[in-house]
Design a protein that fits this description.
- It is a single chain.
- It is globular, with a radius of gyration of 28 Å.
- It folds into four domains: 62 residues, no CATH class; 184 residues; 63 residues, no CATH class; 55 residues, no CATH class.
- Helix content is 49%, strand content 10%.
- The N terminus is likely disordered.
- Strand 4 and strand 5 form a beta hairpin.
- By secondary structure, the chain is α+β, with helices and mostly antiparallel strands.
């Protein structure tokens, strides 16, 4: 077959080779795209991905950007596991294509109207869409399926085009009916996108911020709890600012302080088994969930939740009963997801309490008991700390608030978190002895926190220390 005019020239510009690179600045690809499309030829998906990434580069070639405007598919860029899974059957392509237009910090009214219309016209329905999107989010941190030659660019980063789609999908979840899986998936996306890539920083803060924005637009307790959890875990300043803004706005709407909204946002966790009525942690750090004749027992032990089972005869068994796996698979999945959520929340609340340690915050006795000591989740941390009630150091023991000598404490007025700074050596020793006698392992250093009082020599030198 005779070579087409100019074919020898185009051999230097192979689409297959282009698809193995991260980006190109060469404007000749724009001409190649136009000519191939005019001739009815299809641009390989990997090459489309490279061209799209190139068009999104800050200093990208304007001709390449114009050529990309002529490309009609695929909806996402190939090469990432989550994107490949999303495009696997083509059902979601219209939604994915719209999601990829999410290039702003927040969804515009027009963008949201189109999104709502697409959701309404979506054949599989909102439940199927929710399950699909949350499943894709779980794949975002997986390795690429298409390795690029410029490995330093793909090392943990997200494809720029697909990152826009993730933004849009996060906003899309906020438009669906409330479900506990949505805040969980959005929180996971935020943390995934803030993981640091060596030498490059967070994986993709823009997607993380979109996840926070979506959470802020969901008006239910689970979303608020996830925002409060992220506030205790996130350290990246840009995203932390978005979280702070969202929590402050929610606090103002409810007429509460920022600290109060974080306290009230901690969930007790509805752990609904079959016929359980959605019961949450019924005691501090403990819950029983029925699955027919079998029972799941959850117990908070230190920083983690232990899950154990009893069969119909009430006998402890090492694994999930077969009847539960077979007849209550969905409820079992929700229970296991809730256990993971509790583990994450315990860690976040320990960090929040550690911050309160130095904030010198005070509570009324009633608010303290409700939000801390007797809270089903936070109580597992608060009962391992030392507090002061009207200035008297107290600890929880034998089901009561007691002094360091073991005497019960009557209801007081003002409660604070005990701090060794400013306390006498005898009191610090008494606190440590009391906790050791009770066999308490604290969630963070309190009784044994290091303090460095000034020595007489340092008082004399005034401006420096030889320690």
């Amino acid at each position: 077959m005779a070579a087409a005019p100019g074919e020898a020239t185009w051999q230097l510009f192979d689409f297959e080779e282009l698809g193995r690179t991260y980006y190109t600045y060469n404007g000749i690809w724009a001409t190649r795209v136009r000519e191939d499309l005019a001739a009815g030829r299809t641009i390989p998906p990997a090459a489309v991905a490279t061209l799209r990434r190139s068009a999104l580069m800050t200093y990208g070639n304007s001709e390449v950007r114009n050529a990309v405007g002529q490309l009609t598919g695929p909806a996402l860029n190939v090469g990432e596991q989550w994107a490949d899974a999303a495009m696997a059957d083509g059902r979601w392509d219209p939604l994915l294509a719209h999601a990829a237009t999410a290039t702003a910090a927040r969804p515009s009214t027009k963008w949201e109207e189109t999104a709502r219309a697409l959701v309404a016209d979506n054949g599989p329905g909102p439940d199927a869409l929710r399950e699909a999107v949350t499943g894709w989010f779980a794949l975002v941190d997986r390795p690429r399926t298409l390795v690029l030659e410029e490995s330093w660019r793909e090392r943990g980063q997200l494809d720029a085009h697909n990152a826009n789609a993730l933004r849009g999908l996060a906003w899309l979840l906020a438009l669906l009916p409330a479900h506990p899986g949505i805040p969980r998936a959005l929180g996971g996306l935020v943390e995934t996108c803030l993981k640091k890539v060596p030498g490059l920083g967070p994986r993709n803060p823009k997607v993380a911020n979109a996840g926070v924005t979506a959470l802020s637009r969901i008006e239910d307790e689970a979303a608020l709890a996830e925002l409060a959890r992220l506030a205790a875990r996130v350290t990246f300043k840009g995203t932390l600012k978005v979280i702070d803004t969202a929590l402050t706005a929610r606090a103002e709407a409810l007429g509460l302080s920022r600290e109060e909204i974080e306290e009230l946002a901690v969930p007790t966790y509805g752990l609904g088994g079959a016929g359980s009525g959605g019961a949450g942690l019924t005691e501090v750090g403990r819950a029983e969930v029925s699955f027919g004749p079998a029972t799941a027992l959850l117990e908070v032990r230190g920083p983690k939740v232990a899950l154990s089972w009893r069969n119909a005869a009430g006998k402890a068994v090492k694994s999930v009963p077969a009847d539960v796996r077979r007849q209550h698979a969905q409820e079992l999945g929700e229970l296991k997801a809730a256990v993971k959520d509790i583990d994450k929340m315990l860690s976040a609340q320990a960090e929040r309490l550690d911050r309160q340690f130095l904030a010198r915050r005070t509570w009324t006795y009633r608010a303290w008991r409700e939000r801390y000591l007797d809270h089903p989740l936070v109580g597992t941390l608060a009962r391992r700390l030392v507090w002061t009630v009207d200035g008297t150091p107290v600890a929880f023991a034998d089901g009561e608030v007691r002094t360091l000598t073991g005497d019960p404490v009557a209801e007081g007025t003002v409660v604070e978190l005990w701090h060794p700074v400013g306390r006498g050596a005898a009191e610090v020793a008494a606190v440590r002895e009391r906790l050791e006698g009770l066999g308490v392992t604290q969630p963070f250093k309190q009784a044994h926190r290091e303090v460095y009082p000034l020595t007489e020599a340092e008082r004399n030198t005034g401006t420096y220390s030889n320690r």
